[in-house]
Amino acid sequence: MPLSEPVERELSHTRQVSCRGYKRKDGLWDVEAYLLDTKTYNMDMHEGGLLPAGAPIHEMAIRITVDLDLNILEAEAVMDHTPFRMCPDIADRYQLLKGLQIAPGFTRKTRELFAGTQGCTHLLELLGPLATTAFQATHQEREYLEDWHTGSTPPPMLNSCHSFAEDSDVVKSYWPKHYQPHNKSEN
């Protein structure tokens, strides 16, 4: 279902976020998140010069390398276009992602490491989609190895949203061993 018909309007800003997950020949996974911001008008830059309409005001990317346990083994950030010359100075700090695991608490930990003056707002915003892309890219292989359908290990997405509630029809259908019916009359 599409969004409702908007009132007449004029485009001012476009943000494109793109994420990709790649299985490497060595069995590890590279996951990349890319952000591009453009304006539809010429913009005077604070440090001088004119940014032409359609030229990137922000263009940056993060790549992490993970194993199937979603441990981050390598991390790299680049900032090719930024509004200030000093912005790229913070990119190397994102190597602090190495050693973290994409698991419950990951978002809290990344905010501790990179929020405010300790990072870049835009790179920090990319970490959420980067993490979910890592999860999605490796999902099928992890599901096969863990055997969530017949084994005792619950799928990590159990109770993570409405559809994956332990008493939902989705869980009953896909992971019946982990289905926990609730007595609806008690609610």
UniProtKB/TrEMBL annotation:
It comes from the Bacteria. It holds the Pfam family DUF2889. This is DUF2889 domain-containing protein.
